[in-house]
Write a structure and sequence with these properties.
- The structure holds 2 protein chains of 2 kinds.
- Chain A is about 25% helix and about 30% strand.
- Chain A has a single domain, classed as HUPs (Rossmann fold), CATH 3.40.50.
- In chain A, strand 4, helix 2 and strand 5 form a beta-alpha-beta unit.
- By secondary structure, chain B is of the alpha/beta class.
- In chain B, strands 7-11-6-1-4-5-12 form a 7-stranded parallel β-sheet, with helices on both faces. In chain B, strands 15-14-16-17-18 form a 5-stranded parallel β-sheet. Chain B has a 3-stranded antiparallel β-sheet with strand order 8-9-10.
- In chain B, helix 3 crosses helix 4.
- Chain B starts with a strand and ends with a helix.
- The chains are: A alpha/beta, B alpha/beta.
- Chains A and B meet through helix 4, strand 7, strand 8, strand 9 and strand 12 of A and helix 4, strand 7, strand 9, strand 10 and strand 13 of B.
- Strand 9 of chain A pairs antiparallel with strand 13 of chain B, so a sheet runs across the interface.
- The structure holds flavin-adenine dinucleotide and adenosine monophosphate (AMP).
- Flavin-adenine dinucleotide sits at the interface of chains B and A.
Chain lengths: ~260, ~300
């Protein structure tokens, strides 16, 4: 079985963000980067599928600057077999349709049986790339998957809906799945596997070789939302903070009386 | 300008989110028509044309069939905007339609500003204004970002849409959320653990505070996904919706899906090491502190009276 997993490297969401000089994206400097949380589930599901079948070949693909090789190496250490970096220093300016078209151009002649993506990226979070890849390749796609079972060429999956209800669906492969939080328990790469990952194939392809789509949208501005909450912010030593909070709770609520 | 609003039915019932679509259409200044795969038994209050495909023939979830039906209506109506909710139905269907139309899709719109669509970035820490370059634009709306002050009135002129054949994905039914366990919707005080608790042992710190306050403890999704706390204590869009007198969010960043489940609480306290965490926007009081140090001290003071 041939499996493709698409991963994105994103900043840690607890970072202190700054706006870049053009005013259209966050400044990439001084940020801690990690593998998009949703994509960890995608990688894990690919590896579990291969383990279940006892055979298979997993390609992990990420579009971005050289830095994304860190995320790629994590995916290789988790159990992907080979990797492709589509080298693009300007990836943050690409919109979902362009990202999807790059993946589709790469995957076009490779006959993947199953493709996994995250359901959304934590920074831009369009939730579009997975479905668009499938539409471009003419294969069915199932989104927001929290349960995945492959048997005899078909997948039964559960899609998570609002309120925790799940929709049960069945689809024949080839098919694409977008992975939701909680789908599985992503493994931690072990030291031996991190070492092994260093020897796995990591191909770099210039983005110009694959990109064929003009942007369908553009960012006019990126900015910090106006603080409207106006809530009280307490800072200081924990003992004082606790005293202050107890006082406030006595004044403003009925729970301590 | 014309907009086509895509309403949703779940288990045969019309979802109230259609009102948000109407508000958005109004804010755009667009002439609106509506589309749904649903049933005549529950119709939206809407003054305009409703293109209605019969759910008993098409099925509630068949993205390829729904796409085909929608494309047929778009062909007739020639809308400039196609408007979905950013929901499990909308984010699934919207990109399929956008792709077929070569349209730009803007996801999770929270506001219209200077003719651009405003969307959240990085867990709502940032906002982005997006402009489409295409004649047709597909948008999905963040739940709760739009909505009418007064319930809409009117009754639609229903135009039936003939069913089409089914697509490659077969939908075999719903699985209800696990029932039983705690019903947090009745709790007067809820103290919730977020990923900031760091490890399962620290959930006890949260439980202790909940006990001292005479309340229950809850959790955000990552804590539940990691199986540190059972699912029936999850607060948010895919968990429970709560409105206690006091909600204490400990080590929770304030993602929209969590906020949706607790923002109606009467009084909200957040404890977070990150002063800029989006939870600060919803909180009445944000205590900037490490919960592992702060919460035990607070618990002792509360126990001491
Ligand atoms: C379709 C969908 C449905 C979802 N449904 C839900 C849902 O029902 N409920 C839900 O909760 N989420 C839901 N989510 C997930 C949601 O988007 C967020 O990922 C999640 O709420 C984040 O949980 P968190 O705030 O605990 O973790 P994080 O976002 O990782 O935040 C952790 C916070 O803890 C703080 N922190 C770290 N260490 C400490 C410390 N020592 N002391 C104090 N603070 C600390 C950090 O500053 C940070 O703000 C859903 C997502 C999707 C896509
Ligand atoms: N630069 C990228 N490289 C590879 N995959 C990506 C990239 N951006 C997004 N994806 C994939 O598409 C999914 C959805 O992203 P998005 O549509 O941006 O929310 C992510 O979870 C990834 O699996």
């Amino acid at each position: 079985m041939k499996i493709l997993v698409c991963i994105k490297q994103v900043p840690d969401m607890e970072s202190k963000f700054k706006i870049d000089a053009a005013g259209t994206w966050y400044d990439n400097a001084d940020l801690a980067w990690r593998l998009n949380e949703y994509d960890e589930y995608a990688v894990e599901q690919a590896v579990q599928l291969k383990e279940q079948l006892g055979e298979g070949d997993i390609t992990v693909l990420s579009i971005g600057p050289d830095k994304v090789k860190e995320a790629i190496k994590k995916a290789l250490a988790m159990g992907c077999d080979r990797a492709v970096q589509v080298s693009d220093d300007a990836v943050s300016g690409k919109e979902p349709c362009q990202i999807a078209s790059i993946v589709a151009a790469f995957a076009g002649d490779k006959n993947f049986d199953v493709i996994f993506t995250g359901m959304q990226s934590q920074d831009r979070g369009s939730g579009q790339v997975g479905v668009l890849i499938a539409e471009m390749l003419g294969m069915p796609s199932v989104t927001t998957v929290v349960d995945f079972n492959f048997e005899g060429g078909s997948v039964t999956a559960k899609r998570e809906l609002e309120g925790g209800i799940k929709a049960m669906v069945m689809v024949a492969t080839p098919a694409l799945f977008t992975c939701q939080l909680g789908l599985n328990t992503p493994r931690y790469p072990t030291l031996p596997n991190i070492m092994k990952a260093k020897k796995k194939e990591l191909l770099s392809i210039p983005v110009a070789d694959l990109l064929q789509v003009e942007p369908r949208q553009q960012t006019a501005a990126l900015y910090f939302p106006e603080k409207k909450g106006g809530g009280l912010v307490l800072e200081g030593e924990v003992g004082d903070l606790a005293d202050q909070l107890v006082r406030i709770l006595k004044e403003k609520t009925t729970v301590l009386s | 300008m014309k907009a086509l609003l895509v309403a949703e039915y779940r288990d045969g019932q019309l979802l109230g989110s259609y009102q948000e679509l109407i508000d958005f259409g109004g804010q755009l200044g667009a002439e609106c028509a509506m589309f749904a795969v649903g049933s005549k038994d529950t119709l939206p209050a809407f003054d305009g044309t409703l293109y209605l495909a019969d759910v008993s023939q098409v099925g509630e979830f068949d993205p390829d069939a729904h796409k085909q039906l929608l494309l047929g209506v778009i062909e007739q109506e020639q809308p400039d905007y196609i408007v979905f909710s950013h929901s499990s139905y909308g984010w699934d269907l919207a990109p399929r339609v956008a792709f077929s139309l070569k349209a730009s899709q803007i996801s999770e719109v929270v506001e219209i500003s200077d003719g651009t669509m405003v969307v959240p970035v990085c867990n709502a820490k940032l906002r982005r204004q997006v402009k489409p370059n295409t004649p047709i634009t597909v948008v999905t709306l963040q739940a709760g970002a739009f909505g009418l002050a007064e319930p809409p009135t009117g009754s639609p002129e229903v135009k039936e849409v003939a069913a089409v054949g089914c697509g490659p994905i077969s939908f075999t039914g719903y699985e209800e959320a696990e029932a039983g366990g705690v019903d947090l919707s009745k709790s007067e005080v809820i103290v919730s653990a977020g990923r900031g608790v760091g490890k399962p042992e620290n959930v006890a710190i949260i439980e202790d505070l909940a006990k001292a306050l005479g309340g229950d403890y809850g959790a955000s999704r990552p804590v539940v996904d990691s199986e540190w706390v059972e699912h029936n204590r999850q607060v948010g869009t895919t968990g429970q919706t709560v409105s206690p007198k006091l909600y204490v969010a400990c080590g929770i960043s304030g993602a929209i899906q969590h906020l949706a489940g607790m923002k109606k609480s009467e009084f909200i306290v957040a404890v977070n090491t990150d002063k800029d965490a989006p939870i600060g926007e919803a909180a009445d009081v944000l205590v900037v502190a490490d919960l592992k140090q702060f919460i035990p001290v607070l618990t002792e003071k509360i126990k001491g009276g």
